[in-house]
Backbone:
């Protein structure tokens, strides 16, 4: 089980997050929506170790991660994607995906995911030569290869057409592990309904407003 308890964060004396608590059970699928500027990106950055909270605690299976670096979150089983895909421009796609799959089991899973995604023909290409929908898949594959406990998707619809997003959603549904908890931070409500069990709205000064999820504010 993954949990954020009493998370707070401020910048320049202005509270961005205030006493946010969230519990995720294995296999839970949660969507988080909300207007720009309410703290969604701050929340996902804290939840994945890219930003340290001013207050509160983060735990995964009773292991405290609160002030650990991002690599420790990833090592513990917490993976994420970014609004803007993050691949090196100096290595081809295949080389970069292999970096995320060092263990034999992860390499086998990576090989299977590449086959299912149709990325084989693009592995020799550099990221700037690959269409955005394929890069979105590649980023998810990079996260899924390690069979994560929790996968965070940050605005996965950015830059995708409705058709491309539908294909992306189908791929995700078919390849997300049953025990992997999923959190999608997204504006496209139709996409979240496709791949999540429940959706909460993040509101300024109110945090996460419960809409059928195991969430406290």
Residues:
């Amino acid at each position: 089980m993954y949990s954020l308890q009493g998370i707070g964060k401020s910048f320049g004396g202005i509270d961005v997050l205030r006493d946010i608590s969230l519990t995720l059970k294995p296999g839970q699928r949660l969507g988080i929506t909300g207007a720009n500027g309410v703290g969604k990106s701050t929340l996902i950055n804290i939840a994945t170790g890219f930003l340290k909270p001013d207050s509160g605690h983060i735990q995964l299976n009773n292991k405290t991660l609160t002030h650990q670096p991002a690599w420790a979150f990833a090592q513990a089983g917490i993976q994420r994607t970014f609004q803007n895909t993050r691949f090196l421009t100096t290595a081809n796609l295949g080389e970069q995906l292999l970096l995320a799959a060092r263990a034999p089991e992860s390499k086998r899973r990576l090989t299977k995911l590449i086959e299912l995604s149709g990325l084989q023909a693009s592995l020799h290409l550099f990221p700037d030569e690959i269409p955005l929908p394929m890069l979105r898949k590649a980023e998810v594959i990079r996260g899924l290869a390690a069979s994560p406990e929790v996968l965070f998707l940050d605005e996965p619809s950015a830059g995708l057409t409705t058709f491309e997003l539908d294909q992306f959603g189908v791929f995700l549904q078919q390849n997300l592990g049953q025990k992997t908890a999923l959190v999608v931070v997204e504006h496209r409500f139709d996409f979240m309904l496709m791949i999540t069990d429940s959706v909460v709205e993040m509101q300024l000064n109110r945090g996460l407003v419960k809409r059928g999820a195991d969430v406290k504010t």
The domain at 2-216 is CATH 3.40.50.300 (Rossmann fold). The two ends are 18 Å apart (CA to CA).
